[in-house]
Amino acid sequence: MPKIRKPVKSAAPAQALSTALHIGAGSVSMMVAERLTDGTLTPVDFLEQPAPVARDIFRHGSVSLATAERVVSIIKGYQKSLVELGLDPHGITRAAATNILSEARNHETVMNRIRIACGLRVSTIDDGEMTRLIYLKTRRRLHHLPAMRKDSTLVVHVGPGNTRALLFQNGRITRYTSYRMGTHRTREAVESSHVEGPALLRLIREHASGNLAQLRFDYSDVPIDGLVIIGYELQSVAASLTDPGGVCPLKKLRQFTAEGSRMSDVELVKRFHLDYQTAEALLPALEINLAVAETLKLESPHIPDSNYEQGLLHDLLVSRELSGSFTEDVLRSARILAERYQSDPGHCEHVSNLCARFFDELADLHHLTPHDALLLKVAAILHEVGTYVSPRAHHKHSEYIILNSEVFGLDRMDVNIVALVARYHRHSVPVLDHPGYAALGTDDRIRVAKLAALLRVADALERTHAQRVSQIEIRRDHGKLHIRLPGLADAAVERLAMASKADLFEQVFGLGVVIDEER
Description:
By secondary structure, the protein is of the alpha/beta class. It folds into three domains: 3-125, 2-Layer Sandwich (Nucleotidyltransferase, domain 5); 142-303, Nucleotidyltransferase, domain 5; 323-515, Hypothetical protein af1432. The protein has 21 helices and 13 strands. Helix 3 links the parallel strand 5 (94-97) and strand 6. Helix 8 (250-261) crosses helix 10 (276-295), helix 13 runs antiparallel to helix 15 (370-382) and helix 19 (442-460) packs antiparallel against helix 20.
């Protein structure tokens, strides 16, 4: 059942409009939004039509030819709508696909088909960006939902393939976890049983039992005051579940789930005005969310009544612009990881601060972005986690640990960049003989080299791990980067360290690094 909202007329010039396209688990959607002078986005047009992407993947392991062609046909229709609005049909600001598409055997084939037929490069939303999107959904509600103002609130997103949980304490994220438990994944896992009613609910619960036990364990050490549950299917029926404040009493959710189990997909479509893909995944969504609330013994979960898909499209357009409190939450996650591997917090924080100073002072030299500055700080915080394995070759151990860890808010490419920058904080500079570095594109290899060069210089100034360098003065003169260290009478240790670590900086930026004598 297509969901199409007619365009909202806008006097906005084409250059003030942004577009987001999302190939989701059960639909393909597009939003055109006007960017106002204060940077906020106002929807101008929203379109959504169903496509059984998740059903194909979890049932057959690949996207069928018919579904791929349906996706292409929907996108072409949307591109015609863009032309009517005076926009470039191939100039979509963000084109993204659900992360479960990467589980399809023919993932690349589908992406290539869309690129050839529609002239669009579509990126897959990975775990890092999905977490950012959930974070954005949550942050928007922090100030006006009672549940979010409590000391400790768990936000649970049951997606098509995975469930993610974010713990907020006093409005700040302190922990997040992910579980291989989702609406469409569960639907296809129990479909072959052909059971109905209460027996189907029991089967769904049994299928999710292992992940529910892990969820209970992961949050057993913190008192949780409130629960916010979000997800496409759940929010599609939120109006039937919640009171005017958005609270859904557990008793009502339990009764609603039981009633839903006695209805066919066709009846669900007619009763709640859903498309068939949403109806198929509704019962697993209800039962999993009910099970989460019961597992955590929380009687009054909150369900946002906003349109899930429109919110997602909006957030796709701003996900890469996050700063402020989001940056602090990313750094907090990195510090938690560093603490887990017993890194020296004083040393790592000092190196991170020195990195930030060099990054800001040399902005006209490196031409990197604020996001790169964040990655540099994360790499500085984590550059010595490898000493947990062994001080010998710890830079390589650091790379391995970071690559096999999660840092809140960073996508897989971000983690790769951080791991490589940490690896190159000592000894070898980046070379194409290193597989991880060689696998990057040219632009990303240059980013790694620039960031690693800055980290090596900062780390050299903290060679003693004693935070001796409290002030730095930087100037460039005659092909040299001169560093003065006011208040440090004897910089012999720092000069010796700089002699072995400033080589990459000179290779990348063409400037030798000199620590001037303090007079």
